[in-house]
Amino acid sequence: MRRLLFNLHLVVGLSLGLLIAVMGLTGSLLVFRHEIDRVLYPHLLRAAPEQGGQSVPLQAVLETVRKADSGRAINYVFVARSAEETHELWLNGGALRVYVHPGTGRILGALNAERTPTGWLSALHTKLLSGETGERIIGYGGLGLLFLSLSGIVLWWPSRVRQLKERLRVKWDASGKRVNFDLHRSGGFYVAGLLALMALTGTSLAFGEWFTEAAHRLTRTPPRPKAPVVSASSDEEPLPLDVVVRTANQALPAGEITRIALPSAPNAPLVVRKRLPGEMHPNGMSFIFVDPYRGRVLRLDSARHAAAGPRLLNLRYPLHIGLYGEFSRAFCMSSRA
Known about the structure:
This protein is of the alpha+beta class. The protein contains 13 helices and 8 strands. It folds into 3 domains: 2-31 and 120-206, no CATH class; 45-107; 241-335, no CATH class.
């Protein structure tokens, strides 16, 4: 069995080596995507604070962008989190991103997300630039990496306790082939846990529907209900965005707004996303569904009161991108629910 496992470990490693290297390199670069973007596009992502520190109403920002580009629908508004940041509006599902100064309401410029270096890296890392087919290949590659991590530990494990020290040592005075083998064996032991975690979380993101169903079955919790439906007549006009956002803030005062999803259809709600204090996810996983015509809260999904299934799924992305330092605090916060 050990010989069979060794051969499988070898074949899978040789077959997926290039794919794993691409995922590792692109993922490492994407950890610094915000820093890279700020260096490449400082005129879009940095805003000089205005005197008085006042911000232009979000409704005025929407109207300005709509007048500048009336042919495209605005899907999301990423609200500036500080006076030195800019509002980011996603049009056409995020393909076009427009940046607005929060203090003046002036459009600073726009980017085609797929044509930026970090956008290209993201598409390569998540879909191999090949849509759903590439995403599935990435998912299977993640399963292969998970197998390599676990099988590597089994193959590394010595039959005798006194051999532990030898398995963790690199014989630098030996031949190059032996040094390479020792580096692989000892280095693999130290990083196997992190590789397995990245592989598992990455695979769960690539095969989202499968893992979502599995998480709910494992925790015996019902899946999240669909978004509530809004009843509105054809002649009704939505309320100003600031009024709707104010209603959402009153329903969930804690935390900061990270994203506003505008209604995708006349009967769809407006969704305000927030990150609560101590929450692990960088964008937060609390959602307030609001009737955009009457300013009434239709549903509140707070990360603090999430069931076990959603709470488990909420950990996938932050763990995958390496937010381990926030893990214990976020888990304790979620457990209090």
